[in-house]
Structures are given as structure tokens and as C-alpha cells.
Amino acid sequence: MRPFRILIGLAAIMGADGVILAALSAHQADAARLGAASSMLLFHATAVLASVALAERGMVHLRIAIAAGFGFVVASALFAGDLTLRQFAGHSLFSMAAPTGGTLLIASWLLLAVGAAWPKRG
After folding, report:
1. What distance, in Å, lies between the first and last C-alpha atoms of the chain?
2. pTM higher than the cut 0.90
3. Residues of the chain where predicted confidence (pLDDT) is lower than 70
4. CB-CB contact of 64 with 114 (8 Å)
5. Which of 76, 79, 71 minimizes the C-alpha distance to 33?
6. For residue 121, what pLDDT is reported?
7. C-alpha 43, offset from chain centre
8. Where are the domains of the chain?
9. Per-residue H/E/C for 31-80
């Protein structure tokens, strides 16, 4: 299914970016923001892959799992992008970008929980 391939590709990019930010945070002074951005990308890349795997196996509602997966991607990009931009450019992506990303991450996790409780559909 096409959305699954897109989500897997995005998760792979998130994972690679997470590793890059972890390396940068290890080699820069005062780079706590990069460590946090790295963690969010790495943790949620795994969540995206898990959403795909669970939907593929029919353990969560298909469309809800896809929505949660894309929510993880967008939210992680907002959160990590904002922290990374603050580190390198000295300003935020936009006002409240990181908190918006964090809130969307919470919503995506809750959406995945709803998908697990919803009747199985293909």
C-alpha cells in the first residue's frame, strides 16, 4: 500500500536525521537542544514503523494508524526542526512550534490507542 511505503521512507529519513543530530550534539558545546531533537526523531521514527506494522497485521484500524503515523512525522518535524533551528540560527521555526509538535505527538499516540480499540478494517 502506497501510504505505508511513504511512511516507511519518512521514518528512515527521521532515523537518519536523528543519528546526525545525535552526532552533532556530541561534538558541539551547549547542544542539549540537538540531543532532545535527536531523541524525538529516533523514538518517533520507530513509532511510525510500529504504526505501519500494526496496521499491516490488522491489529489497529488501518486509516487511524496511517493518520497517527503521519501525525508522528509532522509533529517530530515541528519539534525537532524548531530545536535545531534555534541551535543553529538562533531563532525558532515559528512561535510555539516545539510545543505544537509536542502536543501533536501526544495526540498521535492517543490516536494510535483509539486505532487499537477500533474494530479491525482493511
Report:
1. 11
2. yes
3. 1, 119-122
4. yes
5. 79
6. 55
7. 7
8. 2-117
9. CHHHHHHHHHHHHHHHHHHHHHHHHHCCCCCHHHHHHHHHHHHHHHHHHH
